[in-house]
C-alpha cells in the first residue's frame, strides 16, 4: 500500500545546548554522526526527546541545514516538522524537503484540545496541499501523553486513503500495545514505528517498521541490532536487556537523564545542559542511574 | 506592588481568515477598530480565541505590524506572545515591544507536560533576560484547560518577587473562581484579569483588573460597560445578562460560533471561516444560536 523506504532504528537525537541553552551545533552533529556510525538506520532530529518544541522555527531550520551541510545524508533523515501553527508546519516541512530529507515526522496541531478528526484531517490536507510536493513522505506522530491530540484509527485510514503516496507511516508513542497492534493489523504495509523501547520486538513480528525511541541515544548499537536480527534466536534476550535498561531510569524525566548519560559516556559535562522548561539532572542522580545501567553491558564509550 | 496601567476590557480579538484560511487583515483590523469604538479598553490580539496558535511566527509579526501601522494605538495592545519554543516567545515579545505595545500576554511553554514550577520559573526568567527591556510588562496567561501547563500560586509569587516591575498581571482562564479569588487575595495590586465572562463582577469587587474574554468579540459595549460601572446599582443585572448570553451557546466551540455571530452581525459570510484544526459552524447552527441570543438585546450591528 505505502511506499516507506524508512525501516529500522531512527533515533530522535538529543539536541546539545550550551550553558546558556543555545544550540551547541558542533556537539549535536558529532552525536548524530556517532548514532549513525553505531548502526542507527536514520535519525529523527527534532523529536520530543530532542526538545524540538523548545526551539524556534529559525533555530530548527538553521540546525537542519547545518547537519546536512556537514555531510549527514538527508535520505535517512526524518525531522520533526509538526507545529501548533499550520503555516509553521508548512515552512519546516518545505525546508526539510528542500534539503532532501526522506521523510518528516509530523505532530498534529497540539495547542487546541478536543479538536475533531475532521478538523485534524483538514489540517493535514491543508499542509499537504500547501507543501505541494510529490516527494513528501509523512510519518504521523502519535504521542497523546504529551501532545494530548492524537490520531484515531479512523483518521489514519482517511489520511492514507486520501494521500496514499504521502501519508506512509506513523510513530506510535502512546505506549499502548493494543493501539499499535490495531494499527499494524489494520494497515499492512504502512510504516508503523513504535516509540516504546519495550514494544520493539513485538511490533517487528507484526510487520512494524522499526523504532523511534529515546533510549537509543545512549545504546544505538543494541537497538539497531535488534531491528536487524529480530528473527534470530537471541531476539527475546536482546529485547529483555533493552527493556530492563530503560526501566532502570523510568522514574526520571528522560531528556535530562539521557543527556547526563551522554555526558558520562563522553566524559563531557557540557552535555548535561537542557533548555527550560526542562531542568538538568544533578550529577549525583546521574551517577546513581549510571551505576545501575552499567550492569547491562549495553553502553559503549564514543571513540 | 505592580505597575499595570491596563484595566477594564481587553478583547482577545477574533482573527478573520479568508476561505483559504489565510489572514484577512483588512477585516481583522476593521473588527479591532470596532471593538475599541464600542468601548473596549484595549485588545489582546493573538489570544486563544484569536486562533493565535494556529498562525505562524511570521504571520503574527506581520499582522501586528499592520495593526499598529493602521493607527491602532499600541499602548492598549496586549498581544499574546507565549509559544512552546522559548526563542519564538522572545522574538514575538521583542517585536511587540518594538511596536510600543503596553504589555504582552504570555502563555507558558505548552508542549512538554508535567514540567516543574522551577522549570517554568527558569523559562520565564530566560525570556525576560533575553528580551532585556525595562519597558516589558508581562501578563501571565493561565489557561490549564487548553495549555495544560499553568501557574501555581507559588510560581506566580516567585515571578512577582524576582521581577516586580515586569511580571505585573495575569489572565486566569481556569474558570475556577477559587483560583482567581486566591490570586486576588494573595497579590493585591497585581493585574489579575478573568478569562470567564461570568466571574467579571465578582473579580472586580475583589480588586480584579478586568476581563479578557471571548464573548466580548460580539458584545464589547455591554462588557466594557460593566467594567466601567461595576459599582453601580444595576451591576448585578448587567452581569446576569452577560452570563446568560454566554451560557446560551456554551455547548458550541466558542471560536467558530463567535465568528458566525460576527458574520451575522456584519451580514458578511466571509467572517465564518476558521483555520484548521477548527471547523466552521454551519449557518443553520449559527441561526439557532442567534435566535436565542437576540433575546438579551446586547448585540449591536456594526455601522
Would you spell out the secondary-structure blueprint of this structure?
The structure is a homodimer of 303-residue chains.
Chain A: E1 8-11, H1 25-37, E2 42-43, H2 57-69, H3 86-98, E3 104-106, H4 117-131, E4 138-142, H5 144-147, H6 153-162, E5 167-172, H7 177-186, E6 191-194, H8 200-205, E7 210-211, H9 220-228, H10 235-248, H11 254-266, H12 283-293
Parallel strand pairs in A: 1-2, 1-7, 3-4, 4-5, 5-6, 6-7
Give the overall silhouette of chain A: globular
What fraction of residues of chain A sit in β-strands?
Answer: 5-15%
Radius of gyration of chain A, whole Å: 18 Å
Q: What's the pLDDT, averaged over the residues of chain A?
A: 96
Name the quaternary structure.
homodimer
The biggest sheet of chain A, with number of strands, parallel, antiparallel or mixed sense and barrel status, is: 7 strands, parallel
SSE order of chain A, as H and E? EHEHHEHEHHEHEHEHHHH
Q: How is the largest sheet of chain A built, in terms of strand order?
A: 2-1-7-6-5-4-3
- Helix segment count of chain A? 12
Structural class of chain A: alpha/beta
Amino acid at each position: 500500500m505505502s511506499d516507506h523506504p524508512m525501516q529500522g532504528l531512527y533515533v530522535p537525537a538529543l539536541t546539545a545546548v550550551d550553558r546558556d541553552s543555545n544550540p551547541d551545533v558542533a556537539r549535536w552533529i558529532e552525536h548524530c554522526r556517532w548514532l549513525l556510525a553505531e548502526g542507527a538506520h536514520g535519525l529523527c532530529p527534532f523529536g520530543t526527546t530532542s526538545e524540538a518544541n523548545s526551539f524556534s522555527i529559525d533555530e530548527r531550520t538553521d540546525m537542519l541545514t547545518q547537519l546536512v551541510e556537514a555531510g549527514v545524508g538527508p535520505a535517512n533523515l526524518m525531522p520533526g516538522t509538526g507545529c501548533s501553527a499550520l503555516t509553521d508546519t508548512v515552512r519546516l516541512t518545505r525546508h526539510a524537503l528542500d534539503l532532501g530529507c526522506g521523510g518528516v515526522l509530523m505532530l498534529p496541531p497540539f495547542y487546541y484540545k478536543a479538536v475533531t478528526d475532521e478538523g485534524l484531517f483538514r489540517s493535514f490536507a491543508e499542509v499537504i496541499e500547501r507543501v505541494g510536493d510529490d516527494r513528501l513522505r509523512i510519518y504521523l506522530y502519535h504521542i497523546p501523553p504529551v501532545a494530548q491530540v492524537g490520531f484515531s484509527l479512523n483518521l489514519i485510514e482517511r489520511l492514507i486513503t486520501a494521500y496514499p503516496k504521502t501519508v506512509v507511516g506513523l510513530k506510535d508513542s502512546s505506549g499502548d500495545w493494543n493501539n499499535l497492534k490495531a494499527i499494524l493489523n489494520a494497515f499492512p504495509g504502512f510504516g508503523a514505528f513504535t516509540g516504546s523501547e519495550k514494544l520493539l520486538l513485538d511490533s517487528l513480528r507484526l510487520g512494524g517498521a522499526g523504532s523511534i525511541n529515546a533510549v537509543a541515544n545512549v545504546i544505538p548499537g543494541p537497538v539497531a541490532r535488534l531491528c536487524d536480527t529480530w528473527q534470530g534466536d537471541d531476539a527475546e534476550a536482546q529485547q529483555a536487556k533493552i527493556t530492563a535498561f530503560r526501566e532502570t531510569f523510568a522514574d526520571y524525566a528522560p531528556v535530562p537523564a539521557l543527556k547526563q548519560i551522554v555526558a558520562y559516556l563522553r566524559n563531557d559535562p557540557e552535555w548535561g545542559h537542557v533548555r527550560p522548561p526542562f531542568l538538568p539532572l544533578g550529577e549525583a542522580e546521574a551517577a546513581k542511574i549510571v551505576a545501575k545501567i552499567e550492569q547491562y553491558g549495553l553502553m559503549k564509550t564514543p571513540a
